[in-house]
Specification:
With 331 residues, this protein is of the alpha+beta class. It is 19% helix and 25% strand. It contains six helices and twelve strands. The longest helix is centred in the middle third of the chain and has 25 residues, at 114-138.
Length: 331
C-alpha cells in the first residue's frame, strides 16, 4: 500500500509506515498481539527490586539464620545460642534496551498514538527477553537431590538430558504428567520447603496432556467446578501452576538446551536424546530477582522532525535456595 504522506529511508516500510496507521485506511484498533505469558514476578522473590539504580550495582541479601530447637528438661539450664547471620550478594550485571524513532507528521496522523503503541510493545518484548534469560540462568540450579535419574530419598526418575522421562501425546503418557507433578511435590516436601508460595512451570504441550487426566475433576483442585471450565490451570497439589513458552528446550544435533527466546544455547559433548523440555517446580524463596528501568528517554531527532525513544532495564538474578527447586526433564 502506498504511503499517504511521502516517506523515505527507514520510514519507507512495507506495508507502509503511514498507510498502516492512518485511521482513514485502517481501523483505529490494531490487531491484538499475543504476548508470551510473563510469570517471573509470581515465582521469584523480588523484595530487592527497589534497591538498585544501575548496572554494576550489587544487593546484599540477608539470609535468616537457623534457630536451634532442643529438648527441655525441667530443672536444667537453657542454652542460649547466638544466631549466626549470613549474607549473599546479588549482582546487577545484565541489561536489556530498546530504541526506536517516530516522525512528528506520521505520529500526528496516526491513531492510536504511536509513542504509546510502540512503547507498550517494546515493554512487553523486554519482559519476554528478561524472563527467558532468567529461566535459562536459574532452572538448572536445583539441588542435586531434586533432579536426575535417582532424585530424592527413594531414587525417583526425574529424567536427564540423555534419558528424559517420556511424556508426550502417545497413548498412556498423559497419566505420567500428574505422577511427575506429585513426585516433584514430594521432593520439595523432603527438603522441608513451605507449602505456601509453591509454583509449577509447564509448557503448552504438558498442559494439553495434563488437562486430559483426572486433574480435570474438581477434587484435584479443591473446587466445586471443573478446571476445564475456562482452560486455565490453577492450583495443583499446592502448586500455583503457570504455562509458559519461555523455559529452556532442547533438540538433537548437538544442542543441549536453548533459551525460550532462542538467544542462548549450550552444546553437548555426548549424544542427545532428541527433543526435550522441562517441568520445573519451586518456591518463591528459591530465586531472587531484581529489575529496574533506569533510563526512559525521549530525545529530539537533530536531522528530522521527530523523536528518538530509548529505554534501559538492568536486572540480576540468583538461585539462593537450590533445595527449593526441583526439575523434571521430559520428552
Amino acid at each position: 500500500m502506498a504511503a499517504i504522506y511521502p516517506v523515505a529511508g527507514a520510514y519507507a516500510t512495507n506495508p507502509s509506515y503511514s498507510g498502516t496507521f492512518i485511521p482513514s485506511i485502517w481501523s483505529a484498533k490494531l490487531a491484538q498481539k499475543f504476548y508470551a505469558n510473563t510469570v517471573l514476578s509470581e515465582i521469584s522473590n523480588t523484595d530487592w527490586q527497589g534497591d538498585i539504580s544501575g548496572m554494576g550495582d550489587k544487593v546484599v541479601i540477608n539470609i535468616p539464620p537457623t534457630i536451634s530447637v532442643t529438648d527441655y528438661v525441667v530443672g536444667t539450664d537453657l542454652t542460649y545460642a547466638v544466631p549466626t547471620p549470613s549474607t549473599t550478594e546479588l549482582q546487577i550485571n545484565k541489561g536489556k534496551a530498546f530504541a526506536f524513532r517516530i516522525n512528528d507528521v506520521l505520529s500526528y496522523q496516526a491513531k492510536p498514538n504511536l509513542l504509546d503503541t510502540f512503547s507498550q510493545d517494546a515493554a512487553e518484548q523486554m519482559k519476554i527477553a528478561i524472563e527467558s534469560n532468567v529461566f535459562y540462568g536459574t532452572v538448572f540450579g536445583a539441588a542435586a537431590a531434586n533432579q536426575g535419574a535417582t532424585a530424592g530419598s527413594t531414587g525417583i526418575d526425574m529424567g536427564t538430558a540423555g534419558t528424559p522421562v517420556t511424556i508426550n501425546a502417545t497413548a498412556g503418557d498423559a497419566a505420567n504428567v500428574l505422577t511427575k507433578i506429585l513426585q516433584l511435590a514430594s521432593l520439595l516436601d523432603e527438603q522441608h520447603v513451605p507449602e505456601s508460595d509453591r509454583w509449577l512451570l509447564i509448557d503448552p504441550v504438558t498442559r494439553t496432556l495434563l488437562m486430559q487426566t483426572n486433574l480435570a475433576q474438581a477434587q484435584f483442585m479443591g473446587d466445586d467446578k471443573s478446571t476445564v471450565r475456562n482452560g486455565k490451570i490453577g492450583v495443583i497439589d499446592r502448586f500455583n501452576t503457570y504455562v509458559t513458552t519461555l523455559m529452556p528446550t532442547a533438540a538433537p544435533a548437538g544442542v543441549v538446551w536453548t533459551s525460550g527466546d532462542g538467544t542462548q544455547a549450550t552444546t553437548a559433548a555426548a549424544a542427545n536424546a532428541g527433543l526435550r523440555r522441562m517441568i520445573v517446580a519451586g518456591h518463591k524463596s528459591a530465586i531472587t530477582f531484581a529489575s529496574q528501568v533506569t533510563k526512559m528517554e525521549t530525545v529530539r531527532n537533530p536531522n528530522d522532525f521527530g523523536d528518538y525513544i530509548r529505554s534501559l532495564n538492568v536486572f540480576g538474578y540468583k538461585v539462593i535456595k537450590p533445595e527449593a527447586l526441583a526439575v523434571c526433564v521430559v520428552k
